[in-house]
Design goal:
The protein is α/β, with parallel strands linked by helices and 415 residues long. It folds into 2 domains: 79 residues, no CATH class; 316 residues, Glycosidases (TIM Barrel, Alpha-Beta Barrel), CATH 3.20.20. The protein has 12 helices and 10 strands. Helix 7 runs parallel beside helix 8 and helix 11 runs parallel beside helix 12.
């Protein structure tokens, strides 16, 4: 399959790709370094993906009205971009953040309503963060069955796209009307998976030109987010049906596991038959930098996941850590400690950011690390977790933000 894909790419390279009387040759990947291939071969489009990408380009030929060294405007020169006609980030830039940009509800104090959203995205871009993880809440989009409202997400996607920031969109959680819970709780699976996949199809159809990475739920291995717990058996079924629905609408999209709270539970998903229904392994590593040897603990979590993948013959897939963070609490501020013990202060948080984005990003097959969170959450959790942000609630920059900004400035991806 991969050889055929490469032959197809060579064919397009020889023939050229022509729209509006302008020729767009496919890149010659043979020029790229071994490091580039190690991090990006998994992102070279397969046959179905390539056809979908070319189809998108054909539908949007106005995008390619003039010659460019970056056809899709993603900031990656065509010769290094595995999918130069498809607005899709690849493995060599690791800088992501979990940002609750969809929060404009009373229960979250309308955190990103109006100008706050614009300010947040400008700050994200300034930091050099190229990817955000954000909920595309089913309950927001389809409050009533069959009545879809995309207004909020249209604005968010446009702002992020205009600023060349990629999106990892989470299909989350259960709309109240569809919940299998007698109390209509959001953390229960839907009473019929078709309700969920109908929402998935509608969302992918609307955003497939700008959103290429979709995560199915969040922490389904945690009782906080999925009830009742059954060792991911029911989740595996939902994952399969979601994967098939999303790929049918956009074969070039990538599906991620709902970020696992504990990476070792990936084994449950394999045993439940989920192996063929995700493209990227996605898990969380939330370790206190105040504990003994925190870096080794983070490495151990990664190695553990890698071993599970190898045991099930799935070692070629890439890994994204979609939540890694800790509090950064101002000194002498009396805040209840987080679940991992005493709260780090702002400088200790910054030191952990430096360690993560200079050393942990070098771990084998780890392509992206999303810092949790981008901005402090004012009085939401009632403990140190409210201070996970790289910026404070008023958007003032913490030492951790400045540390990350300095690292992103110096980053040079493999060529």
């Amino acid at each position: 399959m991969k050889k055929l894909c490469l032959l197809l790419l060579m064919f397009f390279s020889l023939c050229g790709f022509r729209y509006n009387d302008v020729e767009y040759p496919m890149p010659d990947y043979s020029r790229n370094s071994a490091e580039w291939h190690a991090r990006n071969d998994a992102y070279i489009p397969g046959e179905a993906e390539l056809q979908a990408i070319m189809g998108r380009a054909s539908e949007n030929k106005f995008k390619f009205a003039m010659k460019s060294d970056d056809y899709d405007g993603d900031g990656i020169p065509n010769q290094y971009d595995p999918s130069p006609y498809d607005w899709r980030e690849t493995g060599y830039n690791p800088f992501g953040a979990l940002a609750f940009l969809n929060w404009d509800h009373q229960w979250n104090y309308f955190a990103y309503k109006g100008k706050n959203l614009d300010q947040a995205i400008a700050s994200i871009k300034k930091a050099g963060i190229t990817f955000v993880r954000v909920d595309f809440s089913w309950g927001d989009i389809e409050m009533e069955q069959g009545k879809l409202n995309f207004e909020k997400y249209d604005r968010m996607v446009k702002l992020l796209s205009d600023n060349n920031i990629r999106i990892l969109a989470i299909f989350s959680y259960c709309a109240g009307w569809a919940s299998s819970s007698p109390d209509y709780l959001w953390c229960f699976p839907p009473k019929e998976n078709k309700f969920f996949t109908d929402y998935v199809t509608a969302v992918v159809k609307r955003y497939k030109n700008k959103v290429k990475y979709w995560e199915v739920w969040n922490e389904p291995d945690s009782r906080t987010y999925w009830r009742p717990q059954d060792m991911l058996v029911s989740y595996a079924t939902l994952l399969k049906e979601t994967y098939l629905a999303a790929k049918k609408e956009d074969p070039s999209c990538k599906i991620l596991v709902g970020g696992l709270a504990e990476g070792y539970k990936l084994e449950w998903l394999y045993k439940a038959g989920g192996q063929d229904y995700f493209d990227i392994v996605n898990f969380h590593v939330l370790i206190s930098p105040l504990r003994p040897s925190p870096f080794k603990a983070a490495q151990s979590a990664i190695v553990q996941v890698r071993k599970i993948m190898a045991r099930f013959g799935d070692e070629k897939k890439r890994m994204w850590i979609t939540e890694l963070g800790c509090p950064g609490v101002p000194k002498d501020l009396p805040i209840q400690q987080w679940w991992n013990g005493p709260n780090p202060d702002e400088q200790q948080q910054a030191d952990w950011v430096k360690a993560v984005y200079t050393d942990l990003v070098k771990e084998e097959r780890v392509d992206k690390i999303f810092w949790a969170f981008f901005r402090d959450t004012k009085n939401h959790f009632g403990n140190g977790v409210d201070f996970f942000g790289l910026v404070r609630d008023d958007f003032s920059e913490k030492p951790s933000y400045l540390a990350l900004k300095e690292i992103t400035k110096k980053w040079k991806g493999p060529r």
